[in-house]
Amino acid sequence: MTPRRRDELLAAARELFLRKGYAATSIADIAAAAGASKAAVFYHFKTKESIAAELLESPFTAVSRLIERAEEQRLSPAQILTDYIDGAAETGAVFLAFASDPSTADLIPQYDADAACRRIIELLAGPAATPADRVRARAAFAVAQTVVPTLQEHAGLLDDATRQEIRAAALRALGTGGGS
Amino acid sequence: MTPRRRDELLAAARELFLRKGYAATSIADIAAAAGASKAAVFYHFKTKESIAAELLESPFTAVSRLIERAEEQRLSPAQILTDYIDGAAETGAVFLAFASDPSTADLIPQYDADAACRRIIELLAGPAATPADRVRARAAFAVAQTVVPTLQEHAGLLDDATRQEIRAAALRALGTGGGS
DNA sequence: GTCTATAAGGGGATAGAC
DNA sequence: GTCTATCCCCTTATAGAC
């Protein structure tokens, strides 16, 4: 009932997609990293794409929900950044890694990480944003993205102090007090 | 004497590497984008790698020289960030794009963009850096990297005001006055 | 469920005509 | 210099034995 192998393959795929990118990772790479054969991969997953889709599903819906809440409840930039950073830290930065991997553009149309990022930046910039506002919003979002390399250096774990430090830097980059 | 075709191919390759990433861009893509055949690409360039190497050479040496100067003359974080952003804006952000494309890791050992980025972050963090210092240095560097999407939105041109805005956001993220 | 073997296609790269 | 045609390997994906 518990297909352990499947999880090992999924974990191997995640690690490789994060380190080498989606396009540069082959099914053979994934199989070898999990100590299995290529055919085993295709027994557990229909296509290479579907592996990416499975890895991305939960992180992507988390970000989507954040965007919805931000729009409906008019969350402040500080709240958006905090939620985004916490979510990224918890889901192991898969969303960010895929969003910044150009070879995954248009891979899974339902999970358009790039569009989600652009929307978040718009929300950070505010309703009547000037070009300068957008530059600052992009800067703040870029700081939030540093959870990826930070996670990699901290062996997949982000302590609270580090998370706060990233959040503070993002807010400073945004250049506001963080209020509504 | 002036092989125009070569420059067109180089320009097409740059555009595609930036948009889709190195691994996801095929020789056929490059040839089609320049209105040529695959064989034409291999007449002008020995390998696909060599195209990347040629695109990366000038931006990489610019960054290398910045690192050398920063080490020898003990440049301040503000000076390093300013130079880096200006250099990135001038070289069309090729360096940054390759540095953030995971599929180019170890492509050209001489041009290790990732190592260069880590070195710059160390220099920004300072000699006796705490973990928090490193987080802030990474944040500032991440802000500098936003020249990539910003250039893309501004059709390859960064006006002085925008450049200053990015620079200011990076310095705020770093959390210092920008002094020595 | 996992394997070996293989099909089908795309990738980088070459040969040779023009 | 540029093309068409081709080579060969690697990639995704499938078939079928165990």
From TrEMBL, chains A, B:
<dbReference type="InterPro" id="IPR023772">
    <property type="entry name" value="DNA-bd_HTH_TetR-type_CS"/>
</dbReference>
<dbReference type="InterPro" id="IPR001647">
    <property type="entry name" value="HTH_TetR"/>
</dbReference>
<dbReference type="InterPro" id="IPR009057">
    <property type="entry name" value="Homeodomain-like_sf"/>
</dbReference>
<keyword id="KW-0804">Transcription</keyword>
<keyword id="KW-0805">Transcription regulation</keyword>
<dbReference type="GO" id="GO:0000976">
    <property type="term" value="F:transcription cis-regulatory region binding"/>
</dbReference>
<dbReference type="Pfam" id="PF00440">
    <property type="entry name" value="TetR_N"/>
</dbReference>
<keyword id="KW-0238">DNA-binding</keyword>
<dbReference type="InterPro" id="IPR050109">
    <property type="entry name" value="HTH-type_TetR-like_transc_reg"/>
</dbReference>
<feature type="domain" description="HTH tetR-type">
    <location>
        <begin position="3"/>
        <end position="63"/>
    </location>
</feature>
<protein>
    <submittedName>
        <fullName>AcrR family transcriptional regulator</fullName>
    </submittedName>
</protein>
<feature type="DNA-binding region" description="H-T-H motif">
    <location>
        <begin position="26"/>
        <end position="45"/>
    </location>
</feature>
<dbReference type="GO" id="GO:0003700">
    <property type="term" value="F:DNA-binding transcription factor activity"/>
</dbReference>
